[in-house]
């Protein structure tokens, strides 16, 4: 039996679909009682056993793990709201700790989904590798802190005997995101984005992340972390290619760092007035002008993986959103 946490999310749903269509083992997925089964998985309902199990409810988790030999831990709370920072960190870290403890006691193998947000940065001109680590004392992004501390819980479990592997995906994109999450970038460009920034970041297709996770789970590898990233792309080139995919004019105005600083402050004030979520937060605004390039050689060598081109994924997403 295979258990997937967070299967109602973007990556978790794609992983569940992959396992259902390629694996002979039974699949069980956890969700919160208030969560709906994603459209992507509706055709496979007869092949998936859904259970309500909040990550903070250790008893529900224990029940969900009955008969399970492999766990893919995808569940995580993602929020840009400053008010959510502390509870998000607590939820993500405590939930991971609960799962780690149960898997360790029961001898269950785990693949844990972290993020490149927990990897940190490299010196200018160097690629970021798995040997880099986030400096927590200098980090203000609540999500990054929650992923770092969650990853530390997995490492603690490994030290205690847990059989686990950690993946650190870069920015995950794919048609199944719709207009949510990373899909918001495509939707914004489609509506006529006029600005671009100077930053660079890694991108990866959601299907490739799922395939890498399965490849690692079915290997003999343990106690390792892997950056999962297909290509490093600068934002200008990325949004230009997306615009061309929609057949519209690409952004032509360069948003300088000081303009991004102003933008997140204005968005923050607007969110306070309306009670909504800011269109752009401080971390996103600052990251948009940073160059972060990732080395994916470790995962390629470990399981002999070749990534799908980002241009192909861009084309698929634009076609789905047209």
Automatic annotation (TrEMBL):
GO cellular component, one term: cytoplasm
Source domain of life: Bacteria
Species in which this protein is naturally found: Mucilaginibacter gossypiicola
Limits of the NAD-dependent epimerase/dehydratase domain: 2-219
InterPro entries found in the cross-reference section: Epimerase_deHydtase, NAD(P)-bd_dom_sf, NAD(P)-dependent_oxidoreduct
Coiled coil region boundaries: none
Protein name: Nucleoside-diphosphate-sugar epimerase
GO molecular-function term, one example from the UniProt record: aldehyde dehydrogenase (NAD+) activity
